[in-house]
Amino acid sequence: MDVTIFSPGIYTYGAMLIGGVLRDAGHRVNLTRAPEVPAGSLLLASLYSTQHLLDPAVRDLVRSHRESGGTVYVGGPVSAAPEIVLGELEPDAVVVGEGEETVVRLVAEGVSNALPGIAYIDGDHPVVTPPAPPASIDRALPLIPEDIGSQSIRGASAYIETHRGCIGGCTFCQVPRFFGRKIRSRPLDSIIEEVKAFAAAGATRLSVSGGTGSLYASSDGEMNPEAFVTLLRGMAEVMGPRNVSSPDIRVDCITDEILDAIRRYTIGWVFFGIESGSDRVLRMMGKGATTREVREAVDRCREHNLKVAGSFIVGYPGETGKDYQATKDLIADLYLDDVFVSSAEPIPGTPLAGLVVKTPREKNPAFIPHMGEYRPLDLTESEARCFDLMMHADMYRPQMRLVTDEVYSAYLAEARKQGQDIRAATDLILRYSRS
Ligand code: SF4
């Protein structure tokens, strides 16, 4: 069968993985980042953001393909809330959760209530079949597109999956809900074979995916630093150390061995999800780490001559002005090499989404009008904090970045865009929570 996998904007690892699985099942698979599908091809939309459900280009593609008699299945992280996908896009079915085994059966057999791990509309009613068991972690090579070398996601052509799951329970994150809290690691040989295939296809840099890089091969909460070091060394032997990154790591999942390996076998950056400078907010977020641990982790990275980036979330429901000031103070103290700021986004199926449903709009920073120094800009409280923190972070970094008019406008536009997306996601979640 002809199958088109549509992955909006970027070739995600998940879309490439599904492509490889379907190719090995005997289908002719075309992977595309653009919203287009040839007539006669089955369309599989691999969607990783709630915003895709609201995107007119995605909606039009699904609608027009179905109207012309084509079949459309939707999978990816959005499948965590299948009723929203069914309601918004009206595909033939949703592949729920880890889809690489379910999708092969779905394409071969069609929609049936005997198939676990799917959702579809029967008459007027949504049907969600029982969950499929977790997919095998040992599987075929992904379908790597010829132009993979042209892709740059934070500098990497692709983020490859070395393991699934996270021991953490951050309330805003989908990973432990989608993949579970138990770490399931791929065999090293299979990862290295895949790295070689990416290199042969022209990938210029590869990164280890997920927020828990150093948990590779860990078991029952016990880290396995030796396995992680071997993994990075193996990747560097294929790609060259300047072409490997392993950025995302928990502050409580580092050892001297791990940091040494990051310096020797990668571009030498560590990326921590720090989120807040307020221990009260970190507790609300279920982050499982304290600001003291953050400070210690950053110091330790510096001792190993690593550059450190951090991400922060503002506008979490319940974050006060005092909490926000603590985040600014922490950034001023840490002097991070790079900072990423985002407003708290409720992803369907996460505890944060549940909290947002219970939080009245007049208490949700994503909706509260900002009445402070940026009042003339007509921002919400989340947008104002997001904008302010981006500019603040630029003043407290080893190489200060001047906030020119251009940078100011870009930050303002980014804060507004995030605010708009979050309000749209919140409205969507509220609408389905009522029904
Ligand atoms: S540590 Fe990272 S991957 Fe794990 S739950 Fe928290 S944000 Fe998600």
Structural class: alpha/beta
Proportion of β residues? 15-25%
**What ligand molecules are bound, each kind once?**
iron/sulfur cluster
What's the total helix number? 15
Under CATH, the topology of the largest domain can be stated as pyruvate-formate lyase- activating enzyme
Question: What order do the strands of the largest sheet run in, or round the barrel if closed?
Answer: 2-1-3-4-5-6-7
Task: State the CATH architecture of the largest domain.
Answer: Alpha-Beta Horseshoe
- Quick one: CATH superfamily of the largest domain? tm_1862 like domain
| Main beta sheet strand tally, sense and closure | 7 strands, mixed
Radius of gyration computed on alpha carbons: 22 Å
Quick overview:
This protein is an alpha/beta fold. Helix content is 40%, strand content 15%. Helix 8 (225-239) links the parallel strand 11 and strand 12.
Characterization of this structure:
With 435 residues, this protein is an alpha/beta fold. It folds into two domains: 2-128, Cobalamin-binding domain (Rossmann fold, 3-Layer(aba) Sandwich), CATH 3.40.50; 148-434, tm_1862 like domain (pyruvate-formate lyase- activating enzyme, Alpha-Beta Horseshoe), CATH 3.80.30.20. It is 40% helix and 15% strand. It has 15 helices and 16 strands. The strands form four sheets. It has a seven-stranded mixed β-sheet with strand order 2-1-3-4-5-6-7, sandwiched between helices. A hairpin with a 2-residue loop joins strand 6 (118-122) and strand 7. The radius of gyration is 22 Å and the shape is globular. The model has no long low-confidence stretch (mean pLDDT 95). It binds iron/sulfur cluster (SF4). Iron/sulfur cluster binds at residues 166, 168, 170, 173, 175-176, 211-212, 250, 273.
